[in-house]
Design a protein that fits this description.
Blueprint: E1 16-20, E2 26-31, H1 32-36, E3 43-51, E4 57-62, E5 73-75, E6 77-79, H2 87-99, E7 107-118, E8 123-135, E9 148-154, H3 156-165, H4 174-181
Parallel strand pairs: 3-8
Antiparallel strand pairs: 1-2, 3-6, 4-5, 4-9, 7-8
Length: 189
């Protein structure tokens, strides 16, 4: 967790992630850093989408000190469960760390598998990404500046249009995560 001063209480890059095979079954573990070193090793991750009562989705701009894809807009929260850790439990903890809040309930709606090379670093995402959704009904956001530089609520249809028009402003997984969570908003026609 970050201390709020930009210094992590734990070196997140040394934490273990769960490696998985092409069907999502656990096959071992390694450090976050090793999993993301090119070529990236397929590992379990999660992406959280939070909605408000009117259906808007919460976006965060990743802090400039983030190891991968800094400064880009993304979903509310991302992370990696420890080997054997419950995905929803891990996501709930990470949501509190990054945004100072939790959703009433997080529900897994599917998996998005993707690979993405970070153009600024010699690192690669190769993730079996569990997509979780929740509704934030009360409580103020308190983003950790070591994780999040800003937040905004966006209409999902407007977000899809922006992702199509300016994809380089967003993390490479965001569109796929949205498609898993709300496919009716991202279909052509």
């Amino acid at each position: 967790m970050a201390s709020g001063t930009g210094q992590f209480d734990t070196d997140r890059e040394s934490l273990l992630v769960e490696l998985v095979d092409g069907d999502g079954f656990a096959v071992g573990s390694c450090s976050v850093a090793r999993a993301h070193h090119r070529p990236g090793r397929l590992h379990r991750a999660f992406s959280v989408l939070l909605y408000d009562a009117s259906g808007r989705v919460l976006l965060q701009r990743r802090a400039d000190v983030k190891t991968r894809f800094p400064g880009l807009w993304s979903n509310a929260c991302c992370g990696h469960p420890a080997p054997g850790q419950d995905v929803v439990g891990a996501a709930t903890i990470r949501l509190k760390e990054e945004l100072g809040t939790i959703s009433d309930t997080l529900t897994e709606v599917g998996v998005y598998r993707y690979r993405a090379l970070d153009p600024l670093e010699d690192q690669e995402e190769n993730e079996w990404d569990h997509v979780l959704v929740g509704t934030l009904t009360e409580g103020a956001l308190q983003p950790d500046p070591a994780e999040v530089s800003e937040c905004t609520w966006v209409d999902p249809a407007e977000l899809h249009a922006a992702l199509t028009a300016e994809p380089d402003r967003y993390t490479p997984w965001l569109l796929g995560v949205l498609e898993v969570a709300r496919p009716e908003l991202t279909r052509d026609g």
